[in-house]
Structures are given as C-alpha cells and as structure tokens.
Automatic annotation (TrEMBL):
<dbReference type="InterPro" id="IPR003593">
    <property type="entry name" value="AAA+_ATPase"/>
</dbReference>
<dbReference type="InterPro" id="IPR050388">
    <property type="entry name" value="ABC_Ni/Peptide_Import"/>
</dbReference>
<dbReference type="InterPro" id="IPR027417">
    <property type="entry name" value="P-loop_NTPase"/>
</dbReference>
<keyword id="KW-0547">Nucleotide-binding</keyword>
<comment type="similarity">
    <text>Belongs to the ABC transporter superfamily.</text>
</comment>
<keyword id="KW-0472">Membrane</keyword>
<dbReference type="GO" id="GO:0005524">
    <property type="term" value="F:ATP binding"/>
</dbReference>
<keyword id="KW-0813">Transport</keyword>
<dbReference type="Pfam" id="PF00005">
    <property type="entry name" value="ABC_tran"/>
</dbReference>
<protein>
    <submittedName>
        <fullName>ATP-binding cassette domain-containing protein</fullName>
    </submittedName>
</protein>
<feature type="domain" description="ABC transporter">
    <location>
        <begin position="15"/>
        <end position="260"/>
    </location>
</feature>
<dbReference type="InterPro" id="IPR017871">
    <property type="entry name" value="ABC_transporter-like_CS"/>
</dbReference>
<keyword id="KW-1003">Cell membrane</keyword>
<dbReference type="InterPro" id="IPR003439">
    <property type="entry name" value="ABC_transporter-like_ATP-bd"/>
</dbReference>
<keyword id="KW-0067">ATP-binding</keyword>
Amino acid sequence: MSDSAQHAETGATALEVEDLRVSIDGTEILHGVSFSLAAGERLGIIGGSGSGKTITALAIAGLLPRGAVVTGSVRANGRELLGLPDRELASIRGDRIGMVFQEPKTALSPFRRLGAQMTEALAIHYRLGRAERRAAALRLAAQVGLKDPERMVRAYPHEVSGGQRQRAAIAAAISASPGLLLADEPTTALDVTVQRGILELFTEITDSESCSLVCITHDIAVVNQVAERVVVFEAGRIVEQGAVREILERPQHRVTQALIAAAGSEAA
C-alpha cells in the first residue's frame, strides 16, 4: 500500500474547500467550489483555459489580486485561511503551503543564484546561517535530481535548461517541508521527456515527505500520471470528480469526455 493510501485511511485531511466563491470587479468567477484532500493524497484539478482552476489555487494560497472578494471556507490541516491577515498568510506560504508555478523563468529572479532562491523560505522561517543555507541548497538540489549540485546552486536561471529551472523551483517550494504543495501547470513549458521526470519527482516527494499535492493542468494525461483523484472544472464550477481510473474509464460530463478525447488525439 502506498503512503498516500495509508494517509487516506487515517482520515486526516490536508485541505478542505467548501462553497468557495471568488468575485473580481463585481463579477463572480468561481461559483461554490467544494472539495477535500486527504493527507498524503495527490489530487488533479483539470479544465480548459478560464475554467477557474488557477483562481482556486490562488485563493487557497491567498494570492488573489487586491480587490477580489472571497467567501466560503479554505482550511489547511483544520486551520481556516480565508480572512487571515496578509502577514499570517505570508508565514504559512513556504512553510506549510508550497507553490510551483507554470513558468519558472518568470517565477525565479534572473538576478539571484538558484541556491539562494531554493533556500529563501528556509532563510525566512528558520533564519539559517550562510553555511547552513549552502548545505541546504546542495541537499535540495540533489533531492530534486539536479545533476552537479555544486554548479547548480551557483548558477543563474538563464544558465540552465527549462527542466532544470523547474526542478529548482520545486526545490524552493519544498525547502521548508510544507504539508501541502500546489503545482499550477508545472509541466506545460517542458518537452514530454522532461515532463515525465518532473511528474515522477512530484510522486517521489509526496510519498517520501508525507506531503499532499494539488496538480493543476489542462492535460488529462498529466493527471493520469501524477494524481489519484481528479476534479474537473468548467466555467468556475466543478462538473465532475472522482478516482482518476474511474473518471478515465467512465467519464460522465461532456467536458471530461472532451479532455480525454483531446489527450487521445494528441497521443495518436
């Protein structure tokens, strides 16, 4: 039995989202979204562009644009996140919730070495000294499969490949051992071979670190590789959810059927 399955059996819940609604400039764009995530579980959120999946992740992490109105409930390990002051949310991000964004080239600063960026959350939350921070950077680089960690921690983002940048971004997200990892389209800009390695890395991290994963994507093939359960979005609503295998074999909603058909045509 996998670690994820063992965690799920205990009944521990890493994330609970209930009746989540988000309005921007007076227009509601997320309409009563509800789902939960067991400790150690890997959940896929899938949908087309503008379906609300990224807005959901930003709402969970408290990163919505200023002026957005959010109602409902988001609880991480039983703690309500909605309504927390920005300072408290900032202390939770990186420490308890890690985020991996779609394009590491923009998520990473071009002016700072990768090692410094990998250990930023550690430096903020644990005030590591210079030697401790360097040791942590080397450990993280090795953990995410970056070859020649000594060279990688000294490199700048433009000096490495897209896959290496994404691995560095993942290292930064997991550096403080968060219980929840949010990955927003983490493989979109990568070729198929590199993508497979990144998804395998997510599986390794959740299994070894007892970390829960929410992977947001438009690609059902990605969900099939990395997730155990899937939530399907359309127009700011959840239209279907369930175990990945069940959804792939017996999709009920036309949106799910179209996503599966698109993945099949791309693979052909």
